[in-house]
Every structure is written in structure tokens, then in C-alpha cells.
Amino acid sequence: MDAHTALDSLPSEVVDRICSFVGPQDLVSLRLCSRAAAAKSLHQFGQKCFAYNRFLLTSKNMAILEAIAKHDHFRTVVRGVYIMPALFEGMYSMDQRAFCQWAAESRPRRTLYPSGARRDDLEIPDDKLREFYPAYKKVVADHLDIVFSGRLRELLAYCASRFPNWTSVGLSHYNAGRQDSLNVNRLLDCPEWRDLVSRLGCDPASAWHSISPFRAGDPNVRASVFTALLRTLIAPGAENLALEELTTCQAASRYTSRCSGLMLGELDLSSEEQELILARLEAMKLQELHMCIRDFHRQKHPESYSFMNKIVSRVSPTLTDFRSTRSPTHEGYEYAKQQISWLSHNTSFTSLCRLELGGISTDVDDFKRLLATAAPTLRQVTFWDIYLRVDNPPAGSEEYARLGRQQWRQVWVWLGENLDPSGITMSSLNGPGHGSLRIRDRLHGYRGSHPIINASNVGLYIKEKSHVSFKEWISQLRFEKLLINPPESGSIDSDELYSE
């Protein structure tokens, strides 16, 4: 074909194929060439730019979401809608000085500068930051009005009736400008994010940190937004909505621990609404569920955790991917243990292929019971920050450590007898008394690796790279015994470093 052939003369199928290799930004430019090019590239443009989106809670973003819902074609390609609930890390009452300090310390603000600049050496002057303060106040007022006036709930209900292929919904706590470093799907984008960054001099959607305190003076917008998402399921016109994924975090798995998750203090749902939502989720046959919860002991409504557990219980038979991250504080461990115990007796993971559990407190029997129904189908497993608890724990740190090692050996024996995963990762395993245990892998894990993979507190098994079975690998794991005065090299047998 002649290289100078006009794009307009090519068949629609050929143009569509060409556009499948073009990035979203270049596709926008291509569509400006002619009306014919715009028409022939409409499908790929919708798939690349509107299939999956994250939306900040601002009037402009909500207007974009509404415009997508009204478009006859774009509304049919939408598959995922993720709401970024909180701006400015929930700090909505900062004075000018506090705002300037927060903006100056916000690392994502450097996205204002060209990518070729040395961003670590560039700073925004204080006088410039003060000029952004009125914009901050305006954005906060607009943001909170959307959350608490009912506008968000009404818009989501409208979208539920207009998006026939909507399958994924949830919250997102990571800013849109760091998709590569966070390993988030490149299809996810956030409209008007760059414009908002330029108007504020900083990134208003920077990630919440897990160490961020619960600010009693600020409204818990995350729980309020999640409530609006759940009410969408039972809104008039949402009868045909068939979700496959529900998430409270939408973070890549290896960054889950950095998300501050969902605080349930303002999860304001009546008992009638809860039952309708549970029945709706069960009927949808949900496949993926990610539940990230923080701060057990500071909540106004502890019964909200029971509702979240009921969600897991009702949808567990159809789940293929389940990720649960909980962050009980020291005062909340006993309550967290009760929650996991309830789940272990009321769930049936008969289709589960991938499981990630983090930040949970449980005992050996409940832990094994929770995994028992999933064992035949489970293929990818991640355990991190797991606390095995006991009633009436012994006194003394050495007794704590010995008991922790014994408990985890029981779990490992059970896993070896009941699981055949393609991959498993274990890290930050803890015994009673919050004692972290260091895993030691003497079988070298898999070919081509360092002789000791797990010299710290991480255990890793990959079936396709391993030269041993999972049962053989997990049966030889030991816990490294920490010695205050390590002996000289060669003066003690290596087996004496392990204690069961």
C-alpha cells in the first residue's frame, strides 16, 4: 500500500487495528486529523481512555463521569470506576502555614516539574505556596459538598443504570501520577488530575500512610464514600448491575501494607440496607474482593466490622481472588481475633485461587479452619504480618518465641499436607507477644537463586522454578534462633541454630 494513502480511505477494521497500538495521548491527536479518523478510532479511544478510570471527588471530575454516562458509546465500554475518596490526606482544616508545610513536604508535588529536571533539588518557594492556599480552601469546600450532600450517591446511581458492562468498583488511595512505581494497571487514569496539581502546587491525592493518625476532627470521607458505593448496588435502575470486583483499596499487592485502608466509623447503613446489599452481592456472584481495614479500637460503630465479615461470608463460595488486610492496634488484637474466628466458621472458599492475608490476629485452629475450604483450589498464597495468639500466654520472651515457633510449625505441617500452590510468600510471621520470627530456608528454595533465599523474615516458594515439591520445601523450613553472642564460625553445628 502507498505510504501516502490517506487514513480516511482505510477500512474501519484496519484503522481500529492500527489504533490498538497507539497510546491514549497520541490517539487523541490522531482523532483530530479528521472526522472520519475520529469515527473509525472511536472504539479504541473508548477502550483506552474510559474503560477503567479513577475519579477525584471534585465537581469537574464528577462532571466528566456524568458526561461519560450520557455518551451513547463511551458508556458501553466502562468496566471499572474507582473513587479516590480523600484529598490532602484528610486534612481539610489546615491554616495557611500548615498547608504550606504540608505542600512543601509532599514529594509528589515534584511532578510539576519536567521529567528531565533533578526533582530532588527543586523546591517551591513559600511565597508561591501561599498563593495556592485560596485554591486549597475552594477545593476542600467543593470536595466535602460532593461527599456529604448526596451528589455522589445520585451520580453513582445514575451510572449504574447507564453502564451495562460495569464490573469493577471500589476506592483507590494512590495518586494517579505514580502508576508505574506502584505497578497499577496502566489503563487506569484520573481525569483532570494534572490540572488540579497545577492549581494547588502539590498533589492533593497523595497516598495516605499507614501511620497517619485517625483525625477525630475531620470527617471520615473514605467510609462515607464507600457507603455511597454500596448503596449504588440497591439503587433503582441498578438491577442489571453485575459486579465481579469490589475493593476498598485498589492497591497493587506488594504495596497493600502502605495503604491506610478503610476506617468504618462512618459506615452508616441501616440493618435493612445491609441485608439488601448482602443479598445483592451474593446474587452477583462476586469473583474478586479486596478488603483493607484499619484502626479497630477507635471506631464509633464496631458492628460495621461484623457487616464487612458478612460480605466475605456471603460471597465466599464464588470468590476466586480474596485479599484481606487488617491493622489491629495493640488494644484491638482480641477483637480482631474474634472477627477472624467468626470468619473461619462462616466462610466457604470453594473456588478460591488467590489469597492474601495480612495484619490478622488468630489462633492455629481458626487459621487452619479459615484455609480448609480453599485448600483444593488455592494456587497463589501470600501471608504477611500474621499473629498467632494463645490464651494465657507464658511469661518471658524466650517462652514466647518457643511457643511461636511451635505454633507455626503446626501450621506449616498442615499446609504441606493440604496445599499444592504454584507460589507462596510468607513474611513477618509473629508468635504470641508480638514477637517476629526469622525464617530460615536450608533447601535453597529454587534453582538459580542465592544459596539462602530467606536469610531474613521472608519465605518464598515458586513451583515452576523449584526443584522440590511444596511439601518437601515447607517441611524443611526452620526459624532462626537469635543469639546475643554468636559463636565463632565452625564452633557450632548449623542445626543448633534452629529451634522447634
From TrEMBL:
This is F-box domain-containing protein. It comes from Clonostachys solani. It holds the Pfam family F-box. Residues 4-35 form the F-box domain. InterPro entries: F-box_dom.
